[in-house]
Specification:
The structure is a single chain. The N terminus is likely disordered. The protein is built from 6 helices and no strands. Helices cover 61% and strands 0% of the residues. The chain has 103 residues and is an all-alpha fold.
Length: 103
Amino acid sequence: MSALTTRPMTKSPVRLAQEAVRAARKALPAYSAVHSPKKYTQPQLFAILVVRQCFKTDYRGMVQLLSDMRELREALGLKQVPHYSTLCYAEERLLKKGLSLRC
């Protein structure tokens, strides 16, 4: 049996975000640079971008989802919702590192 058939899939954006954060914490440093603003960790941004891909929405749409879904913000450990441009820059940076954001 392949790993894909034994791994449970989730339709919950909260569970998806929690799993993405957990995986990203193992693979990414908390911040991309020593002098970064430190508002959001790379694992948080990675998880937001994974959820964005699964919802098939744009950056502004993802910001709206985060604004509307308190439980999702809590699962990600967000104190505030990032600006859409933060997500855009984070995706460019993470893709340069060779990370895949696919569901």
